[in-house]
Amino acid sequence: MAGNGDKPKRCRQLVQELMLCPAGQRQQSIESILDLVGEPGTKNNWKEWRDHCQHCLEAVTELLLTQDLQPDPVLSPFLAILEHLPLQEEEAAGLFTPGSFSALGSPESEAEPSLLRRLELCHLLAALGDTELAAQQLESLEPKAIHDPRLSILRGLAWARILHARKEHRQFCALWLNLICDIRAKAGAHSALCLVLQWIEILHWGRNTAAKRDLLLNILQALPPEEELLQSLAMYRLFTLEDGLVDPNQKMYYALRLIEHSPTALNAQQTQHIHFFAGNYSSAMLGNFQESIRYYQQSNYWLHRNWMYLHNLSQFLLRQLDPAGYCRAMRILGRRVMELGNQVSLQGNAFVETLNSEYEKITQLYRKVEELSLTDNLTGLRNRRYMSNNLHQMFRLAARHGIPVSLAIVDVDFFKQVNDEHGHLAGDGVLRELAELIPGSFRASDIVIRYAGDEFLIVIFDSDPPEAIRLMEKLRARIAAHVFGRPQREIRLTVSIGISHAAHDTKEGEQMEAGIARADAALYKAKRSNRDKVVFSE
Questions:
Q1: What is the pLDDT of residues 374-419, one digit of tens each?
Q2: By C-alpha distance, which of 130, 154, 147, 139 is closest to 317?
Q3: For residue range 307-343, what is the model confidence (pLDDT) as tens digits?
Q4: pLDDT band at residue 510 under the 50/70/90 scheme
């Protein structure tokens, strides 16, 4: 027996010899490959056999990828629908058209369509996990009656699952090698590679799932671009790997490729899985609401198709099994139904979360837009639109609760001279500095509005006339002492201010307008009195 370090190399050599040897010598070659690992029951035997199967897989794959991958016209359509079993009546009839057996070198037989149904049953029972019942069904079949390679594949896949579940590792490995050699001889490397991908899927990889990923990547990279069937089978298996092995961006790449090609190799459950992931990715990673909704809609469609598949599967089992066997199968199938129900709930939650998230984004955007629409672009203060939208309501509330309100209009003296002497950019800078100075002289509850070009409206709540006059005198003095335009220029300004007190005894709709009108009149009085003054409207 070869040493542990030489086993992969020796395995590769023996597999190459097996694939090239005549059919009569095949069993001897397989025994040589199997003898590289100790007999079942020895220490660490399970891990040894798992690793050995991986070495065999790698060697078989390496050899097949060097050969012509031309699809077989008879076998390839069957391999494309393996994931869709059980077949509908019309699909099954279409597979067994006159001449289809002779094309594969097999004798015609009227019994083959009914044999297909029995083998479908075995395959489905094994895939569902009832390997005991699947074995009973398979043992009742005569292997010599199976002439068509398509049916041999079904029988082999079912037995592979059974042997794997029973941990009969030697027999499991021997079956796969025999099956792949047989199919390669009858239908070519393309069909054999389809079976390799099935072997990869069934084999338990333990903690060595990175080796599974690497093998699938090697297959995918070696395939010609036009080979969609094998590419789809490999990509879906890469897509379903755990997140630690394949990052979300790469998964989305596989998902888009699979969706684009609409491969017949994928069943309803697999297609739904892809669209559901794409919806989550578009929502969480890209923030693309419309795209995520589109994928969720497609996922819902395939969920419906999945429910229909489960119904058809139940009807198929009812026709093919006795009552006791049907009850057993339905107990197992019930878990699939529960999983699908959970998936429906999960998808619904994801859909709602996407909607809520997008609604929150839209709400925030609306608030931002609304805030911008109420803000003066130059100064960052509130604008006339804010005054129109909000001040009336504030005045009503103040009147209702008896809160005094004062209004003041601040106007820059000789502002035109600033623009003429220093330019409009300097004038804009002055206005921005004023927008920083003015609010700093008042409380956060008071409101400062850019009323016109160089005019500012100040609304002071809870202040009587003497307090309002005091605050405005303080603001006037602060502005007069400030040097604007530093360091490029030194600009000194004064302001004229008109003040009024809102009368709550007028009609609510007239309070603000009347108060502004009186403040404006006081402002012009201050301007006519040599400016740089605060004037209160009596």
A1: 788 888 888 887 777 777 778 877 777 788 888 999 999 999 898 8
A2: 130
A3: 888 888 888 888 888 888 888 888 887 777 777 666 6
A4: low
User: pLDDT digits over 212-222, tens only?
Assistant: 999 999 999 99
Tokens of 272: 């739904």
Number of CB atoms found within 10 A of residue 193's CB: 27
Q: Is the pTM of the predicted complex or chain greater than 0.70?
A: no
Are the C-beta atoms of 229 and 76 separated by less than 8 Å?
Answer: yes
- Domain coordinates in residue numbering, the chain: 384-536
Instruction: Write down the pLDDT at residue 250.
Output: 92
Strand arrangement of the beta sheet that strand 534-536 belongs to? 447-450, 455-461, 405-412, 495-501, 534-536
CATH code for the structural domain at 384-536: 3.30.70.270
Helices (H) and strands (E) in the chain, counts: 22, 7
CA distance 78 to 439: 79
Query: What phi, psi does 306 have (nearest 5°)?
Result: -65, -40
Looking at residue 263, what DSSP letter applies? -
Tell me, rounded to whole angstroms, the distance of Cα 386 from its chain centroid.
Answer: 41
3-state helix, strand, coil in the chain (%, to 5): 70, 5, 25
Alpha helices in 4-87 (DSSP H): 7-20, 26-34, 45-64, 75-80
Helix (H) or strand (E) holding 455: strand 455-461
User: From CA 156, how far away is CA 154, in angstroms rounded?
Assistant: 5
Of 73, 83, 212, 204, nearest in space to 149 by CA: 73
**Greatest distance between any 2 Cα atoms in the chain:** 121
pLDDT in tens, 268-300: 888 888 988 898 888 778 877 778 888 888 888
Please answer whether residues 494 and 429 qualify as being in contact, where contact means their C-beta atoms are separated by less than 8 angstroms: no
Residue with tokens 């201050």: 526
Residue 316, CA distances (Å) to 54, 85, 346 in order = 35, 10, 29
Q: Rounded CA gap, 245 and 212, in Å?
A: 10
